[in-house]
């Protein structure tokens, strides 16, 4: 996964222009530096700001200007984000802004925590007094999924055009999916889930969309949108076609890019 991270980070911070097979490299923000960045995001609020996700547990915000020199710490949750001190795929891994972020101030993060080892999806709100700072006391846990190993945590999240929140979870880790999670519809490991965070129930801080593919299957968790995934580290929607594309980190020699369809089994590990 570190190779995927390095390529992703390079694509985030380096601008490429290809002219007749020749490319040039330019530092997009030469006055800035970051610690283990794993994502760059636009809140979609028209503010012209960018948000950088740092794996140890911070989100930094700055103006989208190549001459920018000032960075604000938008959120710091390093005290609750746990990482294996060695080779790690854990940390603060994903960020998604609510479609009505400019009005609600809601945004969502996914991070790893211990005791027990798990992936946590939480909602935060922007501070009422400073739009460049989150309200650390506003945390609301939406969903937690126990994680048997330190790798394959997934970590991507995003809102579809349907307004629902999509989240990727890895198969739980180790090699070869030793617990068979990828083909087990009774766990959220090895899946992409789809939930409605605008209409919580009395039992949980979200509800299940009525057209989720396994809504009528008594042997499957209703949150599941697609399964049989090893570790879908990133996904995104094609703005022209609306198709959902995902990058599933493979084992050893194989990587996979998939179009994600509801209810489809992507085969890991069969």
CATH architecture term = 6 Propeller
User: What structural class do you assign from the helix and strand content?
Assistant: mainly beta
CATH-defined topology: Neuraminidase
The CATH class name reads Mainly Beta
Order of helices and strands: HEEEEEEEHEEEEEEEEEE
Low-confidence stretches: 1-14
* Number of separate domains: 1
Averaged pLDDT:
92
> Shape from CA axes?
globular
Largest sheet: 4 strands, antiparallel
Q: Biggest sheet: strands side by side, in what order?
A: 3-4-5-6
* Overall number of strands: 17
User: Percentage of helical residues?
Assistant: under 10%
CATH homologous superfamily label: TolB, C-terminal domain
Attribute tags:
globular; single chain; 4-stranded antiparallel beta sheet; 6% helix; mainly beta
What is the strand and helix layout of this fold?
Elements: H1 2-13, E1 14-19, E2 22-27, E3 37-41, E4 49-54, E5 58-63, E6 72-76, E7 92-97, H2 101-104, E8 106-113, E9 118-126, E10 134-146, E11 157-159, E12 165-169, E13 191-195, E14 224-227, E15 232-237, E16 244-248, E17 256-259
Antiparallel strand pairs: 1-2, 3-4, 4-5, 5-6, 7-8, 8-9, 9-10, 11-12, 12-13, 13-14, 15-16, 16-17
Explain what the structure shows.
- There is one protein chain.
- The protein has helices at residues 2-13, 101-104; strands spanning 14-19, 22-27, 37-41, 49-54, 58-63, 72-76, 92-97, 106-113, 118-126, 134-146, 157-159, 165-169, 191-195, 224-227, 232-237, 244-248, 256-259.
- The strands form five sheets. The protein has a four-stranded antiparallel beta sheet, covered by helices on one side. The protein has a four-stranded antiparallel beta sheet with strand order 7-8-9-10.
- Strand 9 (118-126) and strand 10 (134-146) form a beta hairpin.
- The protein is globular and about 55 Å long.
- Mean pLDDT is 92; it is low at 1-14.
- The protein has one domain (36-259): TolB, C-terminal domain (Neuraminidase, 6 Propeller), CATH 2.120.10.
- It contains two helices and 17 strands.
- By secondary structure, it is mainly beta.
């Amino acid at each position: 996964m570190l190779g995927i991270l390095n390529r992703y980070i390079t694509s985030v911070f380096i601008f490429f222009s290809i002219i007749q097979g020749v490319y040039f490299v330019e530092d997009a923000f030469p006055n800035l530096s970051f610690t283990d960045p794993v994502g760059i995001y636009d809140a979609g609020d028209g503010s012209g700001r960018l948000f950088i996700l740092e794996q140890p547990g911070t989100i930094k915000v700055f103006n989208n200007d190549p001459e920018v020199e000032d960075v604000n710490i938008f959120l710091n949750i390093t005290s609750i984000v746990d990482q294996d001190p060695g080779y790690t795929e854990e940390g603060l891994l994903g960020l998604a802004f609510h479609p009505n972020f400019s009005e609600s101030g809601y945004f969502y993060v996914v991070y790893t925590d211990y005791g027990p080892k798990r992936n946590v999806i939480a909602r935060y709100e922007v501070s009422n007094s400073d739009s460049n700072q989150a309200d650390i006391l506003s945390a609301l846990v939406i969903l937690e999924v126990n994680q048997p190993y330190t790798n394959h945590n997934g970590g991507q999240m995003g809102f579809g055009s349907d307004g629902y929140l999509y989240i990727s979870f890895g198969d739980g880790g180790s090699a070869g999916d030793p617990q068979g999670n990828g083909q087990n519809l009774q766990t959220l490991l090895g899946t992409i889930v789809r939930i409605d965070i605008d209409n919580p129930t009395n039992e949980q801080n979200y509800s299940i969309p009525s057209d989720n593919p396994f809504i009528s299957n008594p042997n499957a968790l209703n949150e599941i949108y697609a399964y049989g995934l090893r570790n879908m580290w990133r996904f995104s929607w094609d703005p022209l076609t609306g198709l959902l594309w995902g990058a599933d980190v493979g084992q050893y020699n194989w990587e996979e890019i998939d179009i994600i369809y509801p209810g489809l089994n992507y085969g890991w590990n069969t």
